[in-house]
């Protein structure tokens, strides 16, 4: 019931505040006997890490993960896997002025009202620093999925008004990772970097979009009628900080389409059934149909801007506030591994659930 | 774990197939002492019912709900509330040709593969007829929310390329319900009806969008970090048949916005704090902030079209199929109470969860 | 979270009051493709039915189960299985005098206080009539277990001071079912019947014990550290009306044993490992070890006695009350299939959970 | 679904192995604003700690708890509370001989078979060292219960054949804690100590029983029909290492009682209703009735004995094994705070659940 766990069989619980001693999590329900590839996990964390490039926050965290349990001789034992990442480069004094003042479009006001108490340092529990634990969970989920031939690839498809219309089939991990904004479209990537640099000077921020493609998904993942695969994906993705929208397959564009145009014809090669088009986004009736799953995620601009903003304090007194601390201009480049991680956690959970669908 | 329940405290479980004897559900966790307004519930069902107007399926179901438990002297007792709606106007023979053939963009293929067995009559469990149980659950949720001053209002904001840009503050239940397509914008409503009538002649279908507005929400609903209010809303809404996308507040439009423009300034009148704009859609950090919650939902066109379509049968043999049965041209007018119901179930669940947030 | 569901993968939700229109339930998570043996299910219900013999309540209920969903061509489809049993022989007027008075050692007072409203007719939700739904759930669970070679056998091992010390290995279903009190020990069974008949004359009631033996359990069922197999069995069994104690294996007798005497030596025949003794009751570290599981359950005497008893009414005013209605003298003979059912639900849930323990 | 969490609203997840770097846990769902009394928590841990007296294992662990999150200015924030206790005095080499051999009546064999991999050092996840995390969770639960006036008191009522028949109303914390075996009955306590000392010399172990009394419980805790208060207590208690039986109120003794004798008459003083006797153990129909809750728990003798025992190795080859390591002779003195902790977790979970029972 409490809100810090996700997954029914493969379940991740996260804990920790931005400026507390550590962020961490517990994965319960990971099958026993899985070989842990530590360098893969660390690499995933590095993709999310602040300070990884000129366009990201320069908070310095090595984000090294310490596993406390559930692994023996480099293999999972079936016991819960606990892990922590120490917070090292907190600069809590940057946040002193926020103790009694609410930053616009942050979680300060709502946390304060809901709980009657608030760890204001660095945003406390509401900080996106919490997502480091999601990436650890997601990377272990990916290890399971890799064995099953399922691969998840996210990339930045839009920043502000700069849109990439790259062909989904023409994207590789290398192209994505070699771009500082994780956009595999080289020309567009450059424009995105330029926009971010310009906004950094202006002290402003900008929204963006991530597209995610999952291939190798077997037919059958998803549990109607409420735990449809895309419904669980939507929840997991929407739970990421700053996400404002989710669409899969034809998404919002389907609104203007005719049924005759939208329907994905079934075809076959021998016994192998496939669809000619994929407006369904790889999911029909809430269950994967074997085609690529793809979805798109909208991120709002980061709320911390470096100019004066009107707001109120705890007593409702109007005041102004100005961004301090070390912040990104645009969240999406670093959010790619987070989106992938949440997708991986959902996929592996449904992959395991589906193993017991038939008698 | 199984997929047919939703909600942690106020939990709805649904059951039933389109052409089975009955559709129904169980609500567990409804607080005791709630007065049941049967005519309100029936009215909600009538809003979803087929055959309610010229533009909807002419399957005739009175959709009368029978409560089996959990109510005594018209009040809830704290025991589970079970209810059934008998299926009466099944015409299963309409579906004989589907026994071994997969309709494009339906759930036939995926159910068949996942479970190895499929009740093909009327779409079986995958039929949108299942949503009648959601409306019963949602109407009881609404009774609780009404007492708390929370109101949910959905309406059709787009069908195909016909878009209403009506002011969210200028919408009333009467305006919505007096339109056959549930669009409160009179001129636009007429165009929508005309489009549907034309497509009906063509044997084709069309997508649409529903906008939903929730007012009176107290500050504090939502449980970070995974059960954020909008994340649970997204899951609940995405679990409705034919939904392809969800956005709240500024949604996908936030991608192109600057932080300085997107941020909602806090203001106050006395001790009462509010935001000047509402790009946040009434939710900050996953917790309601007291402003109106609003979100928009994309529905794909209905997959059943009345023209020949290529597809395959169970053995992968290519064949053609043609829509039979009684179907809507556009799902959104009847989906309005379903969207409201799912929102109500999420809201009441979080309303109850929030009662124990503070010591 | 609400309390009317049990099981994580194979989940039974029950509903209904003793004098409402129906008792029923929903099983969600039953694997698809299971063949339903209706006569087996009905036979299980008959074993629990009132009026089955001279020593049971003469309420007449045929307890015929109606399945509403989840079954197609006699096989489960993976969709939720809903079922109802209509209440037919209610005599609610027998309970009019209880509207405002609390029967001693019943649930009247606590339901009234907890919920502020109470369906007093026939005990409402607290009536053991609810267990009819458990037997339906349990009988479907048994169908799954039978395929896996797991068999559950319960019998009455004690009524009042009359104890059977029959050898657990010398018990068959026939011997049990041919006894009106379900005690396979013929001589003891007669004594038990005589005791019940005598108490019936006296208008009094008596406690008893059921022993349950499960054979064919594979090694590996149970999920440490909280969902140990015996912990989940304990909860499921303790949730049955009138149960006051649970012990498995050596149980309370282990208190006085030495470790050297209690330990079960491992032996082997070829690769097959077994234990020489079975004080562990087939479970070690919360996980089944392949030996027979056995446990014993204590039932208190039924609270409804046919003599005047002092009590109070809603306002705390002291009064007397006298049993009316049709009641058993001793609950245990009819409780045997209920105990077996709860054990079956736990076993099948863990059987399915265990399928995903290893990578 | 995974097995390492307990509680629906107040949920404890534990992790860690006996000889891993740390044991720990996460409490999610603790209400915000609770003041944390660190010395109380440490004192509870000290009660469970090995090496606390001459009769316990001399493994030296200071069992100091480190809180990582969820607390700010000594108050809970509503965020998950993570904590770790480092393992310091592991002597893993004591367990080398167990790598491929199964200790009788331990969890070695079942873990090995279930998971296909086993951390054999110190019993790994199956070690009772895991319960240190339960005591942290329980001590925070107790802080909530104390505010509500609910107190939990466990004591040793039996070791081997030495039974205390002390009056439940004549027991105080001081009397219990001043006894090295936690038996408040001074004369009996001495006999218990003598028995343990004798068995230590013999290299043998012995079972025991703990009685637990909970007073100050308000009417209304417990959620029928499956989450009855005593059912959840039974599960929580049975999940503790070495527990073989649970009974509450009249328990197994009720088997031989008549209804007329067992029923608890309701009485009143003014509006205040109470029962004259308390065979119900403070729970009726699964819901607390305001009287003292009491239950009794059976613990088997510890499986590690210091004499040669026959067993088998991984390949089924028969061999002998001899206890090494540092072990208690009788688990019950140190298990008292563990029993109390599990009871506290269940009580606080139901205390919070009950807050939303009524509309």
Which helices and strands, and how do they pair?
The structure is a homotetramer of 359-residue chains.
Chain A lengths: L4 E2 L4 E6 L5 E7 L9 H11 L16 E3 L3 E2 L2 E2 L4 E6 L21 H8 L15 H17 L3 E9 L2 E2 L9 H5 L8 H17 L5 E8 L13 H10 L4 E6 L10 H4 L3 E4 L2 E4 L7 E2 L2 E2 L4 E7 L9 E4 L5 E4 L10 H23 L5
Antiparallel strand pairs in A: 1-2, 2-3, 3-7, 4-7, 5-6, 8-9, 8-10, 10-16, 11-16, 12-13, 14-15, 17-18
Helix pairs in contact in A: 1-3, 1-8, 3-8, 6-8
Helix-strand sequence of chain A: EEEHEEEEHHEEHHEHEHEEEEEEEH
In this structure, how is the largest beta sheet of chain A organized?
5 strands, antiparallel
Q: What does the average pLDDT of chain A come to?
A: 94
CATH architecture of chain A: 4-Layer Sandwich
Question: What is the level 1 CATH name of chain A?
Answer: Alpha Beta
Number of individual domains of chain A: 1
Protein described:
4 copies of one chain form a homotetramer. Chain A is of the alpha+beta class and 359 residues long. Chain A has a single domain, classed as 4-Layer Sandwich (Chorismate synthase, AroC fold), CATH 3.60.150.10. Chain A contains 8 helices and 18 strands. Chain A has helices spanning 38-48, 108-115, 131-147, 173-177, 186-202, 229-238, 259-262, 332-354; strands at residues 5-6, 11-16, 22-28, 65-67, 71-72, 75-76, 81-86, 151-159, 162-163, 208-215, 243-248, 266-269, 272-275, 283-284, 287-288, 293-299, 309-312, 318-321. Chain A has a 5-stranded antiparallel sheet, covered by helices on one side. In chain A, a hairpin with a 5-residue loop joins strand 2 (11-16) and strand 3. The longest helix of chain A has 23 residues, at 332-354. The two termini of chain A are 29 Å apart. The model of chain A has no long low-confidence stretch (mean pLDDT 94). Chains A and B meet through strand 1, helix 2, helix 6, strand 11 and helix 7 of A and strand 1, helix 2, helix 6, strand 11 and helix 7 of B.
